[in-house]
Specification:
This protein is of the alpha+beta class. The chain is built from three helices and 23 strands. The protein folds into three domains: 172 residues, Beta Barrel (Elongation Factor Tu (Ef-tu), domain 3), CATH 2.40.30; 60 residues, RNA polymerase II/Efflux pump adaptor protein, barrel-sandwich hybrid domain (OB fold (Dihydrolipoamide Acetyltransferase, E2P), Beta Barrel), CATH 2.40.50; 102 residues, Helix hairpin bin (Helix Hairpins). The strands form five sheets. The protein has a six-stranded antiparallel beta barrel.
Length: 383
């Protein structure tokens, strides 16, 4: 092959490569995405939103009962352990009741004695009344005879004295009966007190709930006030959080707040604001009622976004935010109806809306329905 032929072959190869290279840069028309109908959108705008303070706290039962001994003695029985569910009125433990039983028996004997004394007093009063009636009748008859000079003055005076003695005796017996009735009432009060004291030997649950602590064992000698068991109501829980005292006037009872715990996110309501601030931490306690179906546990960590003011921010419905792993984004719909998935940074949640810190601008439209069907490049029909 001569030099001319070699040069021609090189030119052909170069030209072929150039044509191929040019062909690779030719843009092919983009494939159109799927068309999705029935998608609702919302225009992003600045709106009023509460300024939230994120307060951390602990979940506690609304009703927690620490059952303590009310009499001295040894623990005779314990029927539950920590973690057991119990019913209202269920026997949980029993203390030695021998001393209390003796008091009840003594009080019952006193009631019996007073009852028998009342029977005797009734009989004595009937006899005294009969004697008084007889003396009164005799005295009246003698009075008439004296008026007719048919009776000596001495006999009249004797009848009068007998009547007055009978009357005084009846009054004395009636007074004695009142004393016996008072002793009987006192004996019954002592009986009721002894029975109440005896009931303290039986430790029963004050409500349906769960035993969260068992502080004693069988055989432990306890004194009045010694904690025995703790029972908490599992139907209602609260999140107790501390806020800086500067916000004391901003927290309102009944206000709705968003609560996050290990069990999930809930809408709670401010139930109680303790107005006294802690002198050391300069905070005040706020108690937030949780929904009955929150499935929280006592001692669980939680956070609450408590409104302490109001500001302006971009916000979208929570349904517009789509999560992919740790990333959050929204589907932005441009004026031509084309969908773009855009990453955003979210802020606080208030009600059904979510604050958008970055990634969106006012006036843009985002899809708020059928986000599970949308993807980049899709087209929205019917805008």
């Amino acid at each position: 092959m001569n030099g001319k032929s070699v040069r021609s072959l090189i030119l052909i190869v170069v030209a072929t490569g150039f044509i191929s290279a040019c062909g690779s840069n030719v843009k092919r028309p983009e494939e159109s995405g799927p068309v999705i109908s029935g998608v609702q959108t919302e225009t992003v705008r600045m709106e009023s939103a509460p300024t939230l303070y994120r307060a951390a706290g602990v979940v506690r039962s609304v009703n927690t009962a620490v059952l303590s001994a009310q009499l001295a003695g040894a623990v005779r029985e314990i029927h539950v352990q920590a973690g057991d569910r119990v019913r209202r009125g269920q026997l949980l433990a029993a203390l030695d009741d021998r001393s209390a039983q003796a008091q009840v028996q003594g009080a019952e004997a006193g009631v019996q004695e007073a009852t028998e004394g009342e029977v005797e007093a009734d009989q004595a009063l009937k006899a005294a009344a009969a004697e008084r009636e007889f003396g009164e009748a005799t005295f009246n008859r003698y009075k008439n005879l004296l008026a007719k000079n048919s009776l000596s003055r001495q006999e009249y005076d004797g009848a009068q004295a007998h009547y007055q003695a009978a009357l005084a005796n009846e009054r004395a017996v009636a007074a004695k009966k009142q004393q016996i009735l008072a002793r009987q009432q006192q004996a019954r009060s002592q009986q009721n007190s002894a029975q109440t004291y005896l009931s303290y030997s039986r430790i029963v649950s004050p409500r349906d709930g769960i035993v969260t602590a068992k502080s004693v064992d069988v055989g432990t000698v306890v004194m009045p006030g010694t904690p025995l068991l703790t029972v908490e109501d599992t139907s209602r829980y609260r999140l107790e959080v501390s806020l800086p005292e500067a916000y004391l006037g901003d927290v309102k009872i009944g206000e709705s707040v968003t609560v996050s715990t290990e069990a999930g996110q809930f809408e709670g309501n401010v139930a109680e604001v303790v107005p006294a601030a802690d002198s050391a931490s300069h905070t005040f306690l706020t108690k937030i009622d949780l929904p009955r179906d929150s499935k929280c546990r006592s001692g669980e960590y939680g956070q609450a976004g408590i409104p302490v003011g109001e500001g302006k921010s971009l916000a979208v419905p929570a349904s517009a935010v789509v999560e992919h792993g740790e990333l959050q984004g929204v589907f932005v719909v441009n004026p031509e109806g084309t969908v773009e998935y855009r990453l955003v940074k979210t802020g606080k949640s208030f009600g059904s809306r979510v604050e958008i810190l970055s990634g969106l601008a006012g006036g843009e439209k985002v899809a708020i329905t059928q986000t599970d069907r949308l993807r980049d490049g899709a087209r929205v029909e019917g805008l």
